[in-house]
Amino acid sequence: MIDCGQLTAWSRINGVMLREGIEVASTSHSGLGLIATKAFTIDDVTDTQVTGTQVQRPEEVILVVPRSLVLSRQTVHELALAYSDSLGKLINVGETESGHGDGLSTREILTRFVVFTLHEYESEKLNATAHASNIYYPYLAIVKASALSTAISPVYWPDSLRRELIGLSIYDAVEAKSAKLIKEYEEFRRAFESAFGPEEDITFDEYTKAEFIVSSRTMETDGDGTDVCIVPIVDFANHRRKTFNARYEINGESPDAIELHLIQSVDAGEEIVISYGDAKGSGEMLFNYGFLESADDGGYGGYEKIKRRLELDPDDTMARVKERVYGRPAVLTLEVFEDGDFHWDCDFIWLLITNEEDGVCIEASRTVDGGMALDVVVNGETVSESGPVLANTVRESVCRHNKDMVDVYRLRIAVVLSNIVEAWIAGLQNSPFVSSYANSSIELLAQRELRLLDRAYEWFINERDSILSDESSPAHKYLATAQAAEMEPSTEIDGSAESSEDIT
Q: What pTM value is reported for the model?
């Protein structure tokens, strides 16, 4: 049984203002959460104040956390000054050794701090000399008990269970992060032994649990997600995408505090919930937080999203070259919204479906040091950028110079992407685990992703048929020419289609 009273006492001692009638307590579904012990009434939306074009809804501040209590990269570095022989060595403050110090991400620094804090107070050897300046143990001990009492991310599942994710959008990401954690742990062990000696040890299980605590509780401290922090007490607010009743302000009007605002009236006994983001699909939720939203509590409204890398055929040399000049993995994003609207995004597709005939050339050149460089030339102009800027430049240029080919490009895209999605559907349906998933979350994720893939496939096929229904369209004539030459308008990806040259 988790002693929430201890957490309340800790928060008050450290300057947290928790509104009377709000407390951290056990929930029926997510370990601990923020619960209203009395009713709160927020003024009706008709009383909102309008300033210019911005509508300010009535809100009530129910939780204020001093910024000095927030666990951030800076906080850990400051604490390391008091622990120069232990924590200082663990994160290599002031050192510039390769792979350490400034080379550690904020997530890694926070993970090492969580491991250090829990170990310092739980180790018989170190407990007697634990510094009073490290105030975080009572909080982290309760976080550990709460976070690990419920479902955890598949990144930390055993190999046998992770294999059941084959065919799902998060499988590659899960395997990649699992491999990365093994490497991180080995680097951590060397640093830990240097700080504490060989007689003290941290297991891989301890490290990964600390990493999950950090990964599942961090919040962005800026708009672009380049840095994160953990805000004690606020981090006990659970997620609901559609029907959340609170929101937090990390860069609000108070420069010295993080605030949690109640934005809807709640009854006594009702949970205070926030949104972790309104554009996260089920796979991303399971990957990051270890759970899927339920339709029963109004959290899951049917929104779904898949973001998945295109697995280019290793024998399609030109496709590989195009991904190389693109400068990053080629990704296809599929989304379906609550109202049934479908949306897709894959800017790389414009590199994939165009070639020299369309005015897009990839040329090799020598660099000043004698190396080899690849240049993308679009209708006579060299494009130095990569990624989405390159892809959008290709799209704008070929459509401007070849206006009568726009429908042909649309046709190529529809055929290529329908083939990709069809291959993904087959991969999921042919999974050896599809009829006997050992984990209910995997089964539910598979159902949701298959539903989205079916919707996407239907959309691309309808797009193809719509383009071809107009017999006067250049695309219709293009297809007839291609068929006469015994060619298929498709590009080889995932082993499910023809090569890129066959579509030209």
A: 0.83
